[in-house]
């Protein structure tokens, strides 16, 4: 049975809107598009690449799909491992409306996300959701994921689309490996979903 990985870049206040490019997502008058680039370094790049080892499918929301489809197919350098990977693997898109999916290997999911995710798990072993914040809310709310991978950047953005905006429900997670901090201060956190709601106790127990 395959696993669903959610991969996100986030500020300390859990804003994950438009990390990569200035014009990526201007919703709500967001002014800080491209906030990730000044704080990235070689260690973060190597972590992201290592995290894609074994990736055999992408699962994307509509906006992220449009961004990726306008960028990665143009990167045909065989020495670019991410471009080669993204262009090769199947891409599955969650959208409430019909789309023209011009990126080779793309497929629109049915509106029954629970059923669609179950089918993807039966077809693939290592499915990654990158960005796709609106869609991530559904995955968090329905607990339709197995791994949550966060790169937390040392910046406060104040406003913007947040990871846990309205989709999270009480959920237990387990840190799967020690946190690693890059020279630029980016902390990589890798969690696995754990059955059951968070436990409680008094600190005096």
UniProtKB/TrEMBL annotation:
Where is each Bacterial bifunctional deaminase-reductase C-terminal domain found? Answer: 7-177
Report any Pfam family annotated for this entry: RibD_C
- Report the protein name in the record: Dihydrofolate reductase family protein
Q: Which organism is it from?
A: Gryllotalpicola reticulitermitis
